Amino acid sequence: MYIRTGMKRIIVFAVMAAMVFTSQASPVFAAKASKPEIAASGAIVYCQNTGEIVYSKNREKKLEPFSVTKLMTVLLAVQNLPLDQEVTVSAKAAAQKEASMNLKEGEILTVQDLIYGCMLPSDNDAAYALGEAVSGDMDSFTDLMNKTAENIGCENTHFTNPSGLRSKKHYTTAYDMMLITKMALSNDIVRKAAGSTSYTVEKTNKHKKRILKTHISFLKDPESGVYAGKTGYWDDTNCSIALGYRSDGLRLFIVLLGDTAEERNNDVKKLISYAKEKVEGVKVIGKDKETGKVRIKHGAKTRLETYTAETGYAYLPKEASESLIAKKVTMNSDVTAPVKAGTVVGRLEIYAADELVNQVDLIVKEDVEAGWFPSYVGISNTGTMIICACLILFLLVFIWISAVKARYRRKKQRIRQRKIMEIAMEEMRREQDYRERDWHF
User: Fold this and answer.
1) 411 falls within a domain
2) Statement: residue 117 has pLDDT above 80
């Protein structure tokens, strides 16, 4: 009986210990991220670092992209037209539906103005005008759109217009649109326009000055990680979005098709959160780590220690080795006083197999005022004070040595004069003795 009771106690204790161990160990051995439920009919998240598709839902399902189409339109405009080329708006362009800029027939704008018109307020007039500027007529331009999509690798995409206006034959897939987004946002000009929150179109021959605003709320939040993108909207139950995301070195392309206005942003947040848990990153350097000194021109201090502004990660393909990771520090050469604490003065570049995969800003943590005149030749105020102190000390030592030497010379002169006097007196005494001897004789 006692043996059975003891065994029961041991078993109970073992179970309790196992429960405690499990509850304590779970944060360490975290479970894999669960795939999120989203409202979009089709979606994809592509990790640019690893080249893998992190998430997909109906990736090959044909859906309407709506105004996300304009990423292709703007890409072709950038590839074929100079930004400062003037474009005269045609009657057909001015007659487009859902035109937020209300372009007028005969109105003259630059290609750059029309690009920002497409990307920010999503103007259909601007998209049509760009298509005509590139190809001369819309049939030729849509042919170019479809040919380019095919060349990129899109197999289930067909465009019938440059703006994304609804059409049974105008469709794409989440996967194909990801390829187009990746290509478009890899272009510096497109990325800048698609990442801007506002743009000013100066007064034209037909319209007063316009202030254009983005439809992407993520761009207004510097902590979101979204750096560029394009929204699409037909009604509250037919929406789309394509985004580029970059944070802590993690680079993603996110596409949602067939979403709702209410859930579109929430779906984006869910997918970003999922990708951050799903993609494993290698911590290369921590935040606030010393990385070397930067030269400050004309500063009270001419060199300051720099620190990493954030943690630096490298995201590698699964087959890659951490031994491929390398770091390189580059300091800005034009840092001129006055400088405020927090100023970015350089960058730490993280490479994987010689490919740049991340950049971390380097900052200073103290203010530096403009220095005195010697700072123009690279001497800090402290250095100037030390030099001045050394010069004064040298001068004082020189004066003291000179005084000692002068005193010594005077002393030697007095001794010499005294000896001369003694010799003279001795000669006089001898002369006197000689005369006295002569007198006696």
Assistant:
1) no
2) yes
| 69 inside domain | yes
First to last CA, the chain: 157
Q: Kindly state whether residue 18 falls inside one of the protein's structural domains.
A: no
**How confident is the prediction for the chain on average, in pLDDT?**
87
Give the end of a domain, one of 246, 279, 312.
279
Q: Are residues 271 and 339 in the same domain?
A: no
The pair of structure tokens assigned to 227 is 């750096």
Q: Are 107 and 146 contained in the same domain?
A: yes
416-439 tens-digit pLDDT: 888 888 888 887 887 777 776 666
- Domain assignment of residue 432, yes or no: no
Give the integer Cα–Cα distance in Å for 271 and 177: 17
Query: 110 near 117, Cβ under 8 Å?
Result: no
128 shares a domain with 269: yes
Whether the CB-CB separation of 272 and 245 falls below 8 Å is answered with yes
Peptide bond into 162 cis (omega under 30): no
Indicate whether 15 pLDDT > 80: no
Distance between CA atoms of 231 and 261, rounded to whole angstroms? 10
* Total domains, the chain: 2
In whole angstroms, give the CA distance from residue 192 to residue 185: 8
275 in the same domain as 182: yes
24's CB contacts (< 8 A; 6+ apart) are none
Q: For 145-153, which contacts have Cβ atoms below 8 Å and span 24 or more sequence positions?
A: 145/72, 145/73, 145/76, 148/72, 148/75, 148/76, 149/72, 149/176, 149/180, 152/179, 152/180, 152/183, 153/179
Name the residue with tokens 């010379």. 409
Confidence class for position 68, pLDDT limits 50, 70, 90: very high
125 vs 143: CA distance, rounded Å: 19
Residues of the domain holding 187 = 42-279
Last residue of a domain, one of 357, 377, 397: 377
pTM, two decimal places: 0.72
CATH classification of the domain holding 241:
3.40.710.10
Domain co-membership, 300 together with 236 = no
Q: What order do you get walking across the sheet with 226-235 strand by strand?
A: 52-57, 42-47, 250-259, 238-247, 226-235
What is the reported pLDDT for 12? 38
Confidence of residue 385 (pLDDT cuts 50, 70, 90): low
Alpha-carbon gap, residue 51 to 320, rounded angstroms: 12
**HEC-encoded secondary structure of 123-138:** CHHHHHHHHHHHHCCH
Say how many C-beta atoms besides its own lie within 10 A of residue 46's C-beta: 23
Burial 364-382 (b: 16+ CB within 10 A, else e): beeebeebeebbeeebbbe
What confidence score (pLDDT) does residue 140 get? 98
